[in-house]
Amino acid sequence: MRLKAILCLLLLAALTMPITADRVDDTIWDLLYGGTADVRASAAVTLGRVNDSRAVEPLIEALKDEDEDVRCAAVDALGRIGGPRAVAALIYIVSSPRVYTEVVVSTTLFGRELTESRLENREVRPRAVAALIEIGELAVEPLIDALGNEDSRVREDAAEALGKIGDPRAVEPLIVALQDEDERVREEAARALGEIGDKRAVDPLIEAIQDEAWLVPASAAAALGEINDSRAVDPLIEVLEDDNRTILYDNTGFRSNAAFALGQIGDSRAVDSLIGALKYDKDQSVRSNAAKALGMIGDPRAVDALTYAAQHDGEENVQIWAKLALADIQEAIDRGESRAGR
Description:
By secondary structure, this protein is mainly α. It has a domain at 228-342: Leucine-rich Repeat Variant. The protein is built from 19 helices and two strands. It has helices spanning 2-16, 21-33, 37-50, 56-62, 68-81, 84-94, 124-135, 140-146, 152-165, 171-177, 183-196, 202-208, 215-227, 233-241, 252-265, 271-280, 284-297, 303-312, 316-335, and strands at residues 101-109, 112-116. The chain has a two-stranded antiparallel ribbon with strand order 1-2. Strand 1 and strand 2 (112-116) form a beta hairpin. Helix 4 (56-62) packs antiparallel against helix 5 (68-81) and helix 5 (68-81) runs parallel beside helix 7.
Protein backbone atom coordinates (compact mmCIF):
# COMPACT_ATOMS: atom_id res chain seq x y z
CA MET A 1 0.00 0.00 0.00
CA ARG A 2 2.84 2.36 0.89
CA LEU A 3 4.55 1.69 -2.46
CA LYS A 4 1.32 2.37 -4.36
CA ALA A 5 0.86 5.63 -2.48
CA ILE A 6 4.41 6.70 -3.33
CA LEU A 7 3.88 5.87 -7.00
CA CYS A 8 0.63 7.86 -7.07
CA LEU A 9 2.36 10.87 -5.54
CA LEU A 10 5.17 10.64 -8.09
CA LEU A 11 2.63 10.45 -10.93
CA LEU A 12 0.74 13.45 -9.58
CA ALA A 13 3.98 15.42 -9.32
CA ALA A 14 4.86 14.54 -12.90
CA LEU A 15 1.48 15.71 -14.14
CA THR A 16 1.68 19.03 -12.32
CA MET A 17 5.33 19.82 -13.17
CA PRO A 18 5.76 22.34 -15.98
CA ILE A 19 6.71 20.71 -19.26
CA THR A 20 10.32 21.38 -20.27
CA ALA A 21 11.26 23.03 -23.53
CA ASP A 22 12.78 19.76 -24.71
CA ARG A 23 9.46 18.00 -24.27
CA VAL A 24 7.45 20.54 -26.25
CA ASP A 25 8.65 19.09 -29.55
CA ASP A 26 7.71 15.58 -28.42
CA THR A 27 4.26 16.77 -27.42
CA ILE A 28 3.81 18.53 -30.77
CA TRP A 29 4.74 15.27 -32.49
CA ASP A 30 2.10 13.45 -30.42
CA LEU A 31 -0.43 16.12 -31.38
CA LEU A 32 0.16 15.74 -35.09
CA TYR A 33 1.09 12.10 -35.44
CA GLY A 34 -0.15 10.30 -32.33
CA GLY A 35 -1.65 6.94 -33.17
CA THR A 36 -4.93 7.48 -31.32
CA ALA A 37 -7.30 10.40 -30.87
CA ASP A 38 -6.79 10.22 -27.09
CA VAL A 39 -3.06 10.73 -27.49
CA ARG A 40 -3.53 13.68 -29.84
CA ALA A 41 -6.20 15.30 -27.66
CA SER A 42 -4.05 14.86 -24.55
CA ALA A 43 -1.15 16.50 -26.37
CA ALA A 44 -3.33 19.47 -27.29
CA VAL A 45 -4.40 19.88 -23.66
CA THR A 46 -0.78 19.74 -22.53
CA LEU A 47 0.34 22.32 -25.07
CA GLY A 48 -2.41 24.66 -23.95
CA ARG A 49 -1.24 24.32 -20.37
CA VAL A 50 2.37 24.96 -21.39
CA ASN A 51 1.39 28.22 -23.09
CA ASP A 52 4.36 28.07 -25.48
CA SER A 53 4.00 30.11 -28.67
CA ARG A 54 5.77 27.36 -30.63
CA ALA A 55 2.61 25.28 -30.21
CA VAL A 56 0.32 27.71 -32.05
CA GLU A 57 1.08 26.56 -35.60
CA PRO A 58 0.79 22.85 -34.75
CA LEU A 59 -2.45 23.49 -32.89
CA ILE A 60 -3.85 25.33 -35.92
CA GLU A 61 -2.83 22.32 -38.01
CA ALA A 62 -4.63 20.07 -35.51
CA LEU A 63 -7.86 21.93 -36.29
CA LYS A 64 -7.97 19.68 -39.37
CA ASP A 65 -7.84 16.49 -37.30
CA GLU A 66 -10.50 13.95 -38.24
CA ASP A 67 -11.52 13.54 -34.58
CA GLU A 68 -13.75 16.22 -33.12
CA ASP A 69 -12.39 15.80 -29.58
CA VAL A 70 -8.92 16.60 -30.88
CA ARG A 71 -10.19 19.66 -32.70
CA CYS A 72 -12.02 20.83 -29.57
CA ALA A 73 -8.89 20.37 -27.46
CA ALA A 74 -6.86 22.30 -30.03
CA VAL A 75 -9.39 25.15 -29.97
CA ASP A 76 -9.27 25.28 -26.17
CA ALA A 77 -5.47 25.33 -26.24
CA LEU A 78 -5.41 28.17 -28.76
CA GLY A 79 -7.71 30.11 -26.48
CA ARG A 80 -5.28 29.69 -23.60
CA ILE A 81 -2.20 30.63 -25.65
CA GLY A 82 -3.77 33.45 -27.66
CA GLY A 83 -1.96 35.66 -30.12
CA PRO A 84 -2.91 37.06 -33.56
CA ARG A 85 -2.55 33.76 -35.41
CA ALA A 86 -4.74 31.94 -32.91
CA VAL A 87 -7.36 34.69 -33.12
CA ALA A 88 -7.38 34.53 -36.93
CA ALA A 89 -7.97 30.78 -36.93
CA LEU A 90 -10.66 30.94 -34.25
CA ILE A 91 -12.46 33.80 -35.94
CA TYR A 92 -12.55 31.83 -39.16
CA ILE A 93 -14.08 28.83 -37.39
CA VAL A 94 -16.75 31.07 -35.84
CA SER A 95 -17.40 32.57 -39.27
CA SER A 96 -18.10 29.14 -40.77
CA PRO A 97 -21.31 27.97 -39.09
CA ARG A 98 -22.22 25.13 -41.45
CA VAL A 99 -18.95 23.25 -41.75
CA TYR A 100 -15.62 22.98 -40.03
CA THR A 101 -12.89 25.17 -41.50
CA GLU A 102 -9.29 24.18 -42.13
CA VAL A 103 -6.30 26.50 -42.26
CA VAL A 104 -3.55 26.57 -44.91
CA VAL A 105 -0.38 28.59 -45.04
CA SER A 106 -0.44 32.00 -46.75
CA THR A 107 0.66 35.58 -46.14
CA THR A 108 -2.64 37.41 -46.45
CA LEU A 109 -4.11 37.29 -42.92
CA PHE A 110 -1.65 37.17 -40.04
CA GLY A 111 0.47 35.06 -42.36
CA ARG A 112 -2.32 32.60 -43.12
CA GLU A 113 -5.02 32.03 -45.68
CA LEU A 114 -8.15 30.16 -44.60
CA THR A 115 -10.08 27.68 -46.73
CA GLU A 116 -13.11 25.47 -46.25
CA SER A 117 -13.11 21.77 -45.30
CA ARG A 118 -15.95 19.26 -45.02
CA LEU A 119 -15.37 18.21 -41.44
CA GLU A 120 -18.40 18.73 -39.20
CA ASN A 121 -18.13 21.65 -36.79
CA ARG A 122 -21.02 21.19 -34.36
CA GLU A 123 -18.95 21.20 -31.17
CA VAL A 124 -15.83 22.99 -32.36
CA ARG A 125 -17.50 26.26 -33.24
CA PRO A 126 -19.03 26.98 -29.80
CA ARG A 127 -15.67 26.15 -28.27
CA ALA A 128 -14.05 28.64 -30.63
CA VAL A 129 -16.42 31.35 -29.36
CA ALA A 130 -15.44 30.49 -25.79
CA ALA A 131 -11.76 30.55 -26.74
CA LEU A 132 -12.08 34.03 -28.24
CA ILE A 133 -13.75 35.20 -25.04
CA GLU A 134 -10.83 33.78 -23.08
CA ILE A 135 -8.33 35.58 -25.32
CA GLY A 136 -10.20 38.80 -24.67
CA GLU A 137 -8.85 42.16 -25.79
CA LEU A 138 -6.93 40.89 -28.81
CA ALA A 139 -10.11 39.32 -30.21
CA VAL A 140 -12.27 42.46 -29.96
CA GLU A 141 -11.58 44.05 -33.35
CA PRO A 142 -11.98 40.79 -35.32
CA LEU A 143 -15.23 40.11 -33.44
CA ILE A 144 -16.47 43.61 -34.26
CA ASP A 145 -15.75 42.85 -37.90
CA ALA A 146 -17.74 39.61 -37.53
CA LEU A 147 -20.82 41.67 -36.59
CA GLY A 148 -20.97 42.46 -40.30
CA ASN A 149 -20.84 38.82 -41.43
CA GLU A 150 -23.57 37.79 -43.88
CA ASP A 151 -24.61 34.85 -41.67
CA SER A 152 -26.84 35.84 -38.75
CA ARG A 153 -25.48 33.05 -36.54
CA VAL A 154 -22.00 34.48 -36.87
CA ARG A 155 -23.25 37.96 -35.96
CA GLU A 156 -25.11 36.53 -32.97
CA ASP A 157 -22.03 34.69 -31.68
CA ALA A 158 -19.87 37.76 -32.21
CA ALA A 159 -22.27 39.88 -30.15
CA GLU A 160 -22.29 37.29 -27.39
CA ALA A 161 -18.50 37.14 -27.26
CA LEU A 162 -18.14 40.92 -27.23
CA GLY A 163 -20.52 41.16 -24.31
CA LYS A 164 -18.59 38.56 -22.33
CA ILE A 165 -15.27 40.29 -23.06
CA GLY A 166 -16.74 43.62 -21.97
CA ASP A 167 -14.48 45.94 -23.95
CA PRO A 168 -16.00 49.43 -24.45
CA ARG A 169 -14.76 49.48 -28.05
CA ALA A 170 -17.67 47.19 -28.85
CA VAL A 171 -20.39 49.55 -27.58
CA GLU A 172 -21.02 51.55 -30.75
CA PRO A 173 -20.93 48.52 -33.08
CA LEU A 174 -23.34 46.69 -30.75
CA ILE A 175 -25.66 49.70 -30.76
CA VAL A 176 -25.69 49.44 -34.55
CA ALA A 177 -26.44 45.72 -34.17
CA LEU A 178 -29.64 46.63 -32.29
CA GLN A 179 -30.99 47.42 -35.77
CA ASP A 180 -29.93 44.08 -37.28
CA GLU A 181 -32.49 42.39 -39.52
CA ASP A 182 -32.34 39.23 -37.42
CA GLU A 183 -34.13 39.35 -34.06
CA ARG A 184 -31.69 36.98 -32.35
CA VAL A 185 -28.79 39.22 -33.26
CA ARG A 186 -30.70 42.21 -31.85
CA GLU A 187 -31.46 40.22 -28.69
CA GLU A 188 -27.82 39.24 -28.22
CA ALA A 189 -26.65 42.80 -28.91
CA ALA A 190 -28.98 44.10 -26.20
CA ARG A 191 -27.74 41.50 -23.74
CA ALA A 192 -24.12 42.29 -24.60
CA LEU A 193 -24.63 46.00 -24.04
CA GLY A 194 -26.02 45.23 -20.60
CA GLU A 195 -22.98 43.11 -19.78
CA ILE A 196 -20.61 45.88 -20.85
CA GLY A 197 -22.60 48.41 -18.82
CA ASP A 198 -21.70 51.53 -20.80
CA LYS A 199 -24.20 54.38 -20.41
CA ARG A 200 -23.92 55.25 -24.11
CA ALA A 201 -26.26 52.32 -24.66
CA VAL A 202 -29.12 53.61 -22.48
CA ASP A 203 -31.08 55.59 -25.07
CA PRO A 204 -30.68 52.94 -27.83
CA LEU A 205 -31.83 50.27 -25.37
CA ILE A 206 -34.85 52.36 -24.41
CA GLU A 207 -35.70 52.44 -28.11
CA ALA A 208 -35.15 48.67 -28.29
CA ILE A 209 -37.88 47.99 -25.73
CA GLN A 210 -40.29 49.00 -28.49
CA ASP A 211 -39.01 46.20 -30.75
CA GLU A 212 -41.81 43.99 -32.06
CA ALA A 213 -39.89 40.74 -31.51
CA TRP A 214 -40.55 39.63 -27.93
CA LEU A 215 -36.99 38.43 -27.25
CA VAL A 216 -35.48 41.85 -27.94
CA PRO A 217 -37.51 44.01 -25.52
CA ALA A 218 -37.01 41.45 -22.75
CA SER A 219 -33.23 41.55 -23.22
CA ALA A 220 -33.24 45.34 -23.55
CA ALA A 221 -35.17 45.71 -20.27
CA ALA A 222 -32.72 43.42 -18.48
CA ALA A 223 -29.78 45.32 -19.97
CA LEU A 224 -31.16 48.63 -18.72
CA GLY A 225 -31.24 47.19 -15.23
CA GLU A 226 -27.62 46.11 -15.53
CA ILE A 227 -26.53 49.56 -16.69
CA ASN A 228 -28.47 51.16 -13.81
CA ASP A 229 -29.29 54.59 -15.23
CA SER A 230 -32.25 56.65 -14.02
CA ARG A 231 -33.21 57.60 -17.60
CA ALA A 232 -34.66 54.11 -17.93
CA VAL A 233 -37.07 54.38 -14.98
CA ASP A 234 -40.07 55.95 -16.70
CA PRO A 235 -39.86 53.76 -19.84
CA LEU A 236 -39.59 50.65 -17.66
CA ILE A 237 -42.56 51.74 -15.54
CA GLU A 238 -44.56 52.13 -18.73
CA VAL A 239 -43.59 48.58 -19.73
CA LEU A 240 -44.57 47.19 -16.33
CA GLU A 241 -47.97 48.83 -16.38
CA ASP A 242 -48.82 47.80 -19.95
CA ASP A 243 -49.94 44.17 -19.59
CA ASN A 244 -52.01 44.33 -22.76
CA ARG A 245 -49.18 44.96 -25.19
CA THR A 246 -48.73 42.17 -27.72
CA ILE A 247 -45.14 41.35 -28.64
CA LEU A 248 -45.45 38.46 -31.06
CA TYR A 249 -46.37 35.64 -28.67
CA ASP A 250 -45.97 36.91 -25.13
CA ASN A 251 -44.79 39.85 -23.06
CA THR A 252 -44.56 38.20 -19.65
CA GLY A 253 -40.78 37.91 -19.71
CA PHE A 254 -40.60 41.50 -20.87
CA ARG A 255 -42.60 42.82 -17.90
CA SER A 256 -40.84 40.47 -15.50
CA ASN A 257 -37.43 41.76 -16.63
CA ALA A 258 -38.69 45.33 -16.41
CA ALA A 259 -39.77 44.79 -12.80
CA PHE A 260 -36.41 43.39 -11.79
CA ALA A 261 -34.57 46.14 -13.69
CA LEU A 262 -36.48 48.77 -11.73
CA GLY A 263 -35.27 47.12 -8.55
CA GLN A 264 -31.68 47.18 -9.79
CA ILE A 265 -31.92 50.88 -10.57
CA GLY A 266 -33.45 51.45 -7.15
CA ASP A 267 -35.45 54.61 -7.86
CA SER A 268 -38.46 55.04 -5.55
CA ARG A 269 -40.50 56.46 -8.45
CA ALA A 270 -41.11 52.84 -9.38
CA VAL A 271 -42.61 51.79 -6.04
CA ASP A 272 -46.28 52.43 -6.85
CA SER A 273 -46.08 50.59 -10.17
CA LEU A 274 -44.26 47.67 -8.57
CA ILE A 275 -46.90 47.47 -5.83
CA GLY A 276 -49.56 47.39 -8.53
CA ALA A 277 -47.74 44.59 -10.33
CA LEU A 278 -47.37 42.64 -7.10
CA LYS A 279 -51.08 42.94 -6.35
CA TYR A 280 -52.69 42.53 -9.73
CA ASP A 281 -50.41 41.02 -12.36
CA LYS A 282 -51.67 37.65 -13.58
CA ASP A 283 -48.22 36.13 -14.01
CA GLN A 284 -46.33 34.80 -11.02
CA SER A 285 -42.91 35.64 -12.50
CA VAL A 286 -43.90 39.30 -12.76
CA ARG A 287 -45.26 39.30 -9.20
CA SER A 288 -42.12 37.55 -7.92
CA ASN A 289 -39.81 40.06 -9.58
CA ALA A 290 -41.98 42.93 -8.36
CA ALA A 291 -41.51 41.62 -4.82
CA LYS A 292 -37.74 41.27 -5.35
CA ALA A 293 -37.57 44.80 -6.75
CA LEU A 294 -39.49 46.28 -3.83
CA GLY A 295 -37.06 44.61 -1.45
CA MET A 296 -34.13 46.00 -3.40
CA ILE A 297 -35.54 49.53 -3.32
CA GLY A 298 -36.31 49.24 0.39
CA ASP A 299 -39.20 51.71 0.54
CA PRO A 300 -41.53 51.18 3.56
CA ARG A 301 -44.55 52.08 1.42
CA ALA A 302 -44.36 48.54 0.05
CA VAL A 303 -44.72 46.83 3.43
CA ASP A 304 -48.51 46.42 3.39
CA ALA A 305 -48.61 44.99 -0.13
CA LEU A 306 -45.69 42.68 0.57
CA THR A 307 -47.25 41.49 3.82
CA TYR A 308 -50.48 40.63 2.03
CA ALA A 309 -48.60 38.83 -0.75
CA ALA A 310 -46.52 36.91 1.77
CA GLN A 311 -49.68 35.56 3.36
CA HIS A 312 -52.24 35.32 0.57
CA ASP A 313 -50.65 35.11 -2.88
CA GLY A 314 -51.67 31.92 -4.63
CA GLU A 315 -48.11 31.02 -5.60
CA GLU A 316 -45.61 29.86 -3.01
CA ASN A 317 -42.71 31.39 -4.95
CA VAL A 318 -44.30 34.84 -4.74
CA GLN A 319 -44.92 34.39 -1.01
CA ILE A 320 -41.27 33.50 -0.46
CA TRP A 321 -39.97 36.54 -2.35
CA ALA A 322 -42.42 38.81 -0.55
CA LYS A 323 -41.15 37.56 2.82
CA LEU A 324 -37.55 38.08 1.75
CA ALA A 325 -38.39 41.58 0.53
CA LEU A 326 -39.99 42.42 3.87
CA ALA A 327 -36.82 41.28 5.61
CA ASP A 328 -34.72 43.46 3.30
CA ILE A 329 -36.89 46.51 3.98
CA GLN A 330 -36.77 45.95 7.73
CA GLU A 331 -33.00 45.59 7.57
CA ALA A 332 -32.77 48.86 5.60
CA ILE A 333 -34.97 50.61 8.18
CA ASP A 334 -32.83 49.27 11.02
CA ARG A 335 -29.71 50.59 9.30
CA GLY A 336 -31.35 53.93 8.63
CA GLU A 337 -31.06 53.39 4.89
CA SER A 338 -34.72 53.35 3.87
CA ARG A 339 -35.31 54.88 0.43
CA ALA A 340 -38.73 56.29 1.24
CA GLY A 341 -39.43 59.35 -0.86
CA ARG A 342 -36.14 59.16 -2.76
